[in-house]
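Figure S4 source data
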Amino acid sequence: MTWIEGLQGVGYTAELLKSVHGFRDKREIEISARSISALATNALNLLDQAYSGIALVSFLPLYYAISNLSKIYIVTAGLRTTLARQKRHGANYDVDKKRSHSLLNENVNIHTQGVFPLFYSVLTGQSISCKRKISLKSFYPFISPIEHELSQFQGLQSGLHLVFVRVNGDTASGFRLILEAAVPHTRLAKDIRGYKSFVGLRTDQPRQKAISPTVQASSIEEAIELLSGHIRRSLLYCRLVPSDSRPNPPVFVPYTGANLLMAEEVPIWLAFFHLSNIVRYSPEYLFRLKDSKSWPLLLAMRKHALLRFLVLFWSHVNRQVVHLKGEW
């Protein structure tokens, strides 16, 4: 939060827009910097409000803090004027529907316009072409800071798989991108389509691998550049494996059959949006959740998932991967 306070300085933010995000028009830089300053200030005030009050209703200001920060993603992508025309959430929660006994059986509806679809397009480079319904069970497994609580209190395993990604070959025979499961007997060899972090690969079932077509290149550096189109970088979860000292350590990637691309910020945004609606419109259900096995999970999420979103946000603003030692 202290780092984000720096974005309240218009001069500092203007310099970030120029040097990091490639803005050139002076007027647009000034307007965008002032917009980011206001959004950052609002987000910080909402975070202060959330953590100075009781946990039960904190999900409402926490969501609005996340929403303000997600708007900064959109402004830094040069979509400030588009955002001005699409100020609605871009998602909704059916408050009149009968509430499920299980938190994870609840649903959120996603629209084609609004803050969330714009945020999603900035993260993934893809648009949401039609309205769709998505269950909490389909995106909670990708909120990595609460994977222990998901398993302990909901019996739901993480949707993240550990994989090795490397480029193999030589200038004579060509180079290929190779994807290999770090843990044997995962679904990698059965259905590569679930690994949406990668495109254009085919499975090599006997060896638990997936491989790309061969490219010709004069060096490994050139080959990496040519093969990078097979990787959706926004779907690589930047988790540290502290005990792994290998030069090519494994990475975590989401495995899902859903059409929605699970960039790391996406499930966190949706989870807090859903909970903010519970606080606003369904106080009876909120108290049921407090008395249920879901409550320790939600208490963990309000701190650890929120912290993760702040780290991801700061990484995006600076276009650098930021890790907090001990975060995992």
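Figure S5 source data
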Amino acid sequence: MTKPHFYNHNIILILAASFCYIASAMFINPLITGFSKGIGCTTLMAVFVAGAMNITSLFLRPLSGQLTDRYSKKLLASLGGICLLIATIGYMIASNTAWMMVFRIINGVGYVLCSVCMATWMASLLPREKLGSGMGIYGLMNALGIAIAPALSIALYQQFGYRKAFSAAVICSALMIILVQLVGDKGAPMVTKAERQPVQHKAHLIQPKVFPLAMILMLFALPYFATQAYIVSYVETLHLPWPSAAFSRSTRSS
């Protein structure tokens, strides 16, 4: 049996980079609320800090989509990876609410650039007859990052505390940047300079046929990320019998 066409080195590198960028965010999310409260955030501010990345990502997605059509996906993914790296290093040195908000917003910018660019970059390299199966594998890599990173993050937190657990996200961000540089294809823009028009008005960004699907995805994502952000704090607060031993180092913040 011959090897499927889409298993070339560019595709493999993009898959690996995609795993790293999603893992970088997922390493942080389960710990962000507890860490924020540990450095002095009120419960209400910890909510805003935890959600700042996702809110930033939400509002920047239309713009990031247009940028992806107009500029090199490799360039934009690299910028996204740099933002992730700055944010994850920032979490390790942040000492107050203001800096946490700054780094969460930077994290959101990096996350949205990576999520939009990597998916469209992957799709652009796949032959049309392999688009479904290829994107299925791309989705699998994202699912692995979402499944593995939070569990490993909590395990590292138990043993070493918050800040040292964040170092895993730093490593993933750095790896993502390196892997993107190794991709031979630059992800050329779909719109040439001659074809570029001014950024479309808001009305043109909303497609009625896509809106119901977008709402379904949003309603799925909201409870998922809310649960992920609060699961550790929730278990510790309620002193649940089984997880209480697993999360025994709840007071460590360095």
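The radius of gyration is 19 Å. The first helix runs from residue 9 to 28.
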